[in-house]
Amino acid sequence: METESEPYVRLASLRQLHLVVAQLSTARSLADTLQTIADGVVEGLGFEIAAVNLVRPEGDLVVAAVAGSQGAEAMMAGRAGSRASWDRRLSMGEAWGNLRFIPYTEGWVLDDDDVPQWHPAGPAPQSGDDWHPMDRLFAPLYASDHELLGVLSVDKPRNGRRPGAWGREALQLYSSQAAIALSNARLRSNMQRALVRLEREQSALRASEESFRQAFEYAPSGMAVAEMGGDQHGRLIRINDALCRLLGRPASAMRRYSFSDIVHPEDIGTLLRTSAEGGRAELRLARRDGSYVWVSLRNSVVADTADGPRFLLTHVEDIEDRKRHELQLAHRASHDSLTGLPNSAELRARLNGRLCARPAPVVSGVISSAPGGPAAGTDGNGFPGLGFEDAGSGVLASTGMYDPHHTHAVPPTGNVQGEKGLAVLFCDLDGFKSINDRFGHNCGDAVLVEVARRLSAGVRDNDTVARMGGDEFVVLTDGVGPAEAQDLAVRLRNAIIPPIRVDGRAVRVGASFGIGWAGCGMTAEEVLQSADQRMYVEKRSRSKGQRRAG
Hints:
Elements: H1 6-23, H2 30-44, E1 47-55, E2 61-67, H3 70-76, E3 80-81, H4 83-89, E4 94-96, E5 99-102, H5 104-107, E6 136-142, E7 148-157, H6 165-200, H7 205-217, E8 222-227, E9 236-239, H8 241-247, H9 251-254, H10 259-262, H11 268-277, E10 279-286, E11 292-304, E12 308-318, H12 320-334, H13 344-352, E13 362-363, E14 366-367, E15 421-430, H14 432-439, H15 441-457, E16 464-469, E17 472-480, H16 482-496, E18 500-502, E19 505-507, E20 510-518, H17 524-540, H18 544-548
Antiparallel strand pairs: 1-2, 1-7, 2-3, 4-5, 5-6, 6-7, 8-9, 8-12, 10-11, 11-12, 13-14, 15-17, 15-20, 16-17, 18-19
Helix pairs in contact: 1-2, 1-6, 1-12, 2-6, 6-7, 14-15
């Protein structure tokens, strides 16, 4: 079963992976892109050495970039290996998805071929999962048409072990983005050369136009040319087949639009900034069937030194699969893998999102939950000069930033009729350990899944049900009073009590609930600890038999 620390490690790894992937789009040339790819492996993927082997026009592969070791760079940089030797390597060893791992027990036959190689010094492995200095791990870089662009080779994991499932998945995702960056860098280089020829070589205008047309029309990703300035600013005047296929629209129809007509309403600001300044953006474009597709859009302003901007050249890359993969990775990092519920890290994030650093202000003896408390510079009664509010009120615990629309969370006092607050129901299952001990963890896991389902079915759509770990669950429910919270705890306990059928047998668990109240000025840990303590008080107040019966 997953430990509580794993989501934090994965989330940190995911953030680092996002950072190095983002760096791929900042390189301005093919050489910069190659070095950025190698550097990203060392900076974000847990390997100490990386090299990019680039396919040359004649077919062999040259070591174009090395990161992490001056010795490796001195030994390999600029040297080439034959395509036949590389094809042999990519057919050996173990296939880890798109990766190719050659253990040292098989790789000795490659020691004398013509591929440049450098092996770091290191201890012999102590177990089967330890990394050997002679182990080899390769990530082929393929274009969208499956053309081999190069091979990314990595070595010497920082933890001294062969990558596990998470590390392999991260390396595969990074290599796919590196291939896109490399393909785009080559395409941009070709396009820029074509555009320079169009501007500077008037004598070869027709040949340059044909070169541009072919690069534009037969580009594997979408390309478009739009007008700049005047009444028709932004109108598409030229669209290639790849973009028409991506959006499911014929070229004749596309020429009636600008990108602002088909961009998702939430992304219009991003599009306008990119169109005005050039550069890159990720946004959603509408297909003919009404659905939206995520694309990476890169604009280049083609200018004339005399007349100013002439038109906008736009490169559109389909990134739908990558976005879906990112969402899946983010979901795995913030949700429990067994039950699918938010995990403890996500629960704390949601709880912190409702709490600010200062308790709700008291106005005339009544705690106020209005956004931001009394007006800044007043005493709560509208009179200036007393400086009641300070920078702490409305500063969210989750971001550390001031939110003027923040509504204070106030624990009910019981003195005012109709009080509402943010209730935290801490649930601990009774009798669960005996099920694990008697019937095994598979049965216990099935019970946890069913309990999670019953809890989720018993709350409102805007409530949160999270698994803290083990047999502990937490429910966040906002806008309820003490009686409503107590009633909810009773209903959820009654929902858990009925027998649960697992593999033909009926098992039962009970549940103990503790109700805490979240309030601004408290931390998420304090809120959860309060509810946890109340749960144990409630558990001890009942006999063991009563607890098992719910």
